[in-house]
Amino acid sequence: MRAIFRLLLILFSLAPVAAWGAGDVAGAAEGAAQLEAGLLPAPQPTRADYPDIGFSSRAIVWVVAQMHLFFGALVLAVPLFVLAIELVGVRSGDARYDDMAHEFMKISLTAYSITALFGGTLALALFLLYPHLMEYLTRVFGAQMLVYALLFFLESLLLYIYYYGWNAMRYGNRKWVHMSIGLLLNAAGATLMVMANSWATFMMAPSGVNEVGAVVGDIWEVMKGPLWNPINLHRFVANIAFGGAVVGGYAAYKFLAAKTPEQRAHYDWMGYTSNFIAILAFLPLPFAGYWLMAEIYAYSQQMGITAMGGILAWLFIVQAVLIGTILLAGNYYLWSGMSRTEGSRRYQWLIKYIAFVLVVCFLIWVTPHTLILSASEIAALGGSHHHLLGPLGIMPAKNIAVNLMLVFTFLSFQLYRRSDKVATVSWAPAANAFLVMIYLVAIANIIFAGIYYGYFTNTVYKVGSSVMQVVSTLVVIVAGVVIDGLMFRNARILPSRWGQVSNRAQYALFALPVAFTWLMALMGYVRSSVRTHWHVYTVMKDNSPDNFIPTIGYAGNMVTLVTLLFLAFMLFIFWIANLGSVRQEPPR
Amino acid sequence: MSVLGRTIGFSILLTLVFTLVANLLPQMEGEAPREETMDPGELTMDSFVALGESLFRGKGTCTLCHNELGRAPDLLAIDVVQAAEQHLADHRYHGKATDAAGYLHESMVDPGAYVVRGFGKKGSNDTESPMPAVDRPPIQLSELEMDAIIAFLQAKDGNQITVELPAGPSAPAVSGEPGDGMSAAATAEEALVKFGCPACHTLPGSESVVGPVLTDVGARRTPEQIRESIVRPEAEIAEGFSGGVMPGDFATRMTVRELDMIVRFLAEQKG
Fold this sequence. Notes:
A: mainly alpha, 2 domains, two-stranded antiparallel ribbon, 21 helices, globular, disordered N terminus, B: Cytochrome Bc1 Complex, Chain D, domain 2, Cytochrome Bc1 Complex, Chain D, domain 2, 11 helices
């Protein structure tokens, strides 16, 4: 079941759940009664206990939950980088930043209502379709859900003040007040996210309950399960990348539809900034994912293998296609963008090599290790686990490819950032040489670690090899950011001509949100599936008719459905955002 | 085409490419273990072993780790009983088992009692096992199911099966497919005919001199001795007869209930 449930607020105001939560708060007086109630084991519904509505309950919850998550991710991410852009605007004194940040917020505002709408629908669907699970979860989380609802109201309040107060608090001390509100808004948003994450991670790796699911710890122990922080980080970073990609799509659309050069320039710049945010947040994402997987293995090797080596292993081919699409699109957009500045001539010769490496790596990555077997062949060869399929779990060649793709994408990114600048510090040549050396060593290290540990040692060390590779990649990224940051501090800026970018490049900006959205939903499928036939892993069985892991094809179709739905809603939001600025001429 | 049309067209096309990739891959469902209740009284040793194998590959999820990929010892490829005996003798063993069956049982409920070298949790220097205790969630096998797996592990390399079939109808229900074979007999008389006892023994309504007369066996033998004579005819040879005549495989062919019925019936034959 795709049960991540959020935003119980609508039901909170209606349902007896509220009484539950309140009871918990006032708990001290009825301590004994609480204790008794608290030691209730998790319910174990039989199949007959699940409401049968003649249609897959899981499919309904899947769609609604995913829509809620898409919008939730968007409205959490946008204010975050809006605040960052606002800060840049204040420091640079360039009003364009402020206007762009404000325009981003406009999108976020409409998305916020839709988030709440889907959140309410999701809560309703869950309570109706999975009453026992929800009864259990409300029992476990109790008052925390009430806090969540209150926080949600606080978030709404801050959001409205932040958006509508933008122009009223634009300069001087008021600006700082405005930015403080933005900070509070983000703090509330991040808290909401980690609270909701704890529901999902509790279902994957419950803590604070005993073997039969009776609550034995306090709410903090319940929340702080082994997967909570890895998921928090992963979602936080992914949200930013996702949010950047979505507003990038908006900018691309506006660019293509622009009528004046000023508009083109504005939206070109907006698209560029969005892409910058998306790619920069995207680069560390595989490492956050790596940490998450490592924690899953540490929590339960069985769960880890289910995710990486069982029937779900094929999913990582699709993931490779998606990430490859994202990286190629992001790179393509950067290269196209180089036409904006004269300074980029210096680096143009490198692009063909970068492109070559990226394409070769991409092909290595997506090529399945083996000829693709049919499902019946795999079943005949011993269930879902098979010696040809298995190596996908640990894939040295692919690890080399992925890390090189990340390194070269960062290179594109760095070259692009440099293309409109000339360093003025005296030590620039030395720093450049040092940087080139870091790149070379890292690349050599990635290839060596992959080949040596991947092919010439036994399994146990293979995992170790990816750590070395990951560290190499991270070193490149960190060194690149730090050195460039110092080196171009007082750089001479070459003129850029915003708006001077091809229409075709805008399609790369559409490819990003489409691939991101699809990828996010796909990862939702695997995250939910590793629980196998459990609502709450090891303490509450899923006995519903949908307690099996659906095929990757079925999941793909569902993912496409939610992606297209999301895109349709986004078009609606963009349309609404524009509608506000249209004013009908008075009749003569 | 308008900008809007092109944007939408492009986005839909791209999602369709992804969908296509997902649909081209092998399509497999991860089924939840089916909770089929079966009557342990219907078990024969053969079907018990078969149950063990299906649990090993299915509900037990043992093959998730125990396969040829090096995640865990490949139990299907090695003689597990032999390995168990070696590990029992190893100084690193700190469990309570004394024989192979006990060791295998312990490996399942307390995997840390002995950690096979090179397979311990990362960083634990082979002192902690990554294997979950299989009698607990999420795998949650019953005692009977674990016995079935032990029987399977013993049988697959031709080792002697030392676990007992579950006794009587009071044993807890297990999940999995029941063993195949002929339909079970409903009464003791039916069972005796089904297994051809009258061919050698004198029983009420039939005569034969190949084996001892059984119409008075209840007077001569206790029910336990009768059971033993059927399950392991070689254990004690009746006076005046030679061993090796009575088939020794009834234990694997009879269901628990059939055996019970026959023993009860014969114990009442007091001449």
